[in-house]
Design goal:
35% helix, binds S-adenosylmethionine, 2 domains, single chain, Rossmann fold, five-stranded parallel β-sheet, alpha/beta
């Protein structure tokens, strides 16, 4: 899902006094969360003269991304409380992060605050669990392992923000207009079912939920 479908050209812009980003001849893309730094690298390639700031809530993610993708200003930050001045950015991009924000309209309001009046916000969110074979297989396995009280994290958080009407309403609540929403289907591959299970169960917040129930290896 993306708003809007077209990215307008970046224009020269200066950050207001007191802002923590530097004025630059061509400012700037903000993107969060950076994860592995893949999107940050794409933005730097697409807009070689832009100043790019990359943030994530998780300091380890920021450290990892900063090592892999130089050229952006990396820093740990909560998307609900961004350490940037008002109207500093022409473009804000968030890849697979909004689903995790506890208050979506508040996060969108924050994006709006840092964007210039003609700025654009682009973000992606996953569809329902049923549309993702890996996630569907994982949740079926969890239901088998924990029949009395299956964990709902995967269904309700990463795959719990797929209703376009809800997203558009949250954007409107933040004073943003959705110019375009697009459904994209891509195919991913895994070396094995075990890789999928280990990745989800140990490399996502699902880990904490499983650990709270008992043995992660069960
Ligand atoms: C599924 S990962 C996506 C990472 C990366 N964008 C990618 O596409 O590979 C979700 C990310 O959201 C971050 N996140 C969760 N809540 C956040 C918040 N309130 N502010 C900023 N980042 C947050 C997590 O730390 C995590 O890195």
């Amino acid at each position: 899902m993306a708003c809007p479908g077209r990215i307008s050209p970046l224009r020269p812009r200066h950050c207001p006094a007191g802002s923590q980003t530097r004025p630059s001849p061509l400012t700037a893309c903000w993107r969060s969360p950076p994860g592995r730094g893949v999107l940050t690298r794409e933005l730097l390639t697409a807009f070689p003269t832009a100043e790019v700031a990359a943030t994530d809530l998780n300091a380890a993610m920021v450290e990892f991304g900063a090592r892999r993708t130089t050229g952006a200003a990396w820093q740990q930050a909560d998307a609900l409380h961004l350490p940037f001045g008002d109207k500093c950015f022409d473009l804000a991009v968030c890849q697979f992060g909004v689903m995790f924000f506890p208050d979506k309209p508040a996060a969108f309001r924050e994006a709006r605050r840092i964007l210039a009046p003609e700025g654009r916000l682009l973000f992606s969110t996953w569809s329902t669990v049923g549309a993702h074979d890996f996630a569907a297989a994982l949740t079926a396995g969890i239901e088998r392992a924990l029949p009395d009280d299956p964990l709902t994290f995967v269904t309700t958080v990463p795959h719990g923000y797929s209703d376009v009407g809800q997203v558009v309403a949250d954007l409107a609540a933040a004073g943003l207009e959705c110019l375009s929403a697009e459904s994209v289907t891509l195919e991913g591959r895994s070396g094995s079912a075990a890789d999928v299970a280990v990745g989800f169960c140990t490399g996502t917040p699902l880990r904490t939920a499983i650990e709270n129930r008992g043995d992660l290896r069960a």
